[in-house]
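Why does residue order matter? Because the sequence determines the fold. Keep that principle in mind as you read this record.
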Amino acid sequence: ARDEMARSIGVKVNNMLKDFTQVTGIGNDAVVDKVTSSVSQQVASQTLQGSVQKGSWVSPCNELYVLMALDAAVVQAAVKQQVNSSYKNEKALWQQFQAQKAQDELASAIEKEFSPTPQPVAPVPAVVIPVAQPSTPANMVWVEGGTFTMGDDNLGIGGPKHSVTVSGFYMGKYTVTQKEYKEIMGNNPSNFIGDNLPVEKVSWYDAVEYCNKRSIKEGLTPAYALIGAKETWDKEDGVKLNNGSNGYRLPTEAEWEYAARAGTTTAFSVGEFIKTDQANFADPHGVYRKKTTPVGAFAPNAWGLYDMHGNVWEWCWDRYGFYTTNAQTNPLGVPLTTLRVIRGGSWADPDAQVRSYNRGQNPPAERHHNVGFRVVRPKS
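Structure:
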């Protein structure tokens, strides 16, 4: 009878567990653990028939005997109560889970349907803050400083070769034109007339005076201190350089040759030979124009400077004197004579006179219709 009651209880409990598992989808083992634990607690709390003491059934060895000794109705009621309670709780949780899952799927579908397709985001370019650079004065070129070999051993007074270092400077792209000269000086002394022709028939004194007047007009510090009357400047050493000036001045002889060569080591910036379609000079085998040509009429050298060969000779700052073999930095010439250096040759001279290293000299007060000048300025 007891075996039959145990089997009957077991069958009923097992059937109830199967139903619960089918509804909730929760594994049978998990439900068995829950039901068994709860049933054991409820049964153990009741007054058991016979000599069974509270809690004595807990041992796995006598659990079956405890079940068989109990009234079937008590066990069945306890099992039903636990299963029904678990079923209701688990079903509610399952339904809640299913509802939330459906809601999430609906939201995902709506988002997929109506959300715009993500577009690739173009990278944001870096913000570049421009750094102010010193502006280049009108019609001037910045000549970066450097070291070069000045002179030529095959030219007598043009030698010997020696190493010279010059600092950077601005230099006029062109020789000063008649228009520019007249705007500052109020007159035009030239022999060949034309606004865009180089000014000529100017003395070294005239060129120095032009530099100072142009500097003052443009709000710059004059490059020269002029002492006494113009006619006595050279005799009395009346023209001195103002150190630290930012105004216009004549190039030194070293600056002029450095700029004329434009990084070359040949006789001309265009090579070892030059033709009259490259510069204005007197060539019996080419074109002899017998006059000046407009500034910039021929191609510039590699540094953007025009007419460094021919057209008009150009005054330099230096007094004329012999070179030494010593290396020099920013030389200013030698104070041995009153003659001032001229460079570049002119429309009236043969090709030998327009070489990059060729030198000439004139008294500072003389004016000739093949001598002009160009100006330079420091960086600041």
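Confidence is low (pLDDT under 50) at residues 43-70, 126-133.
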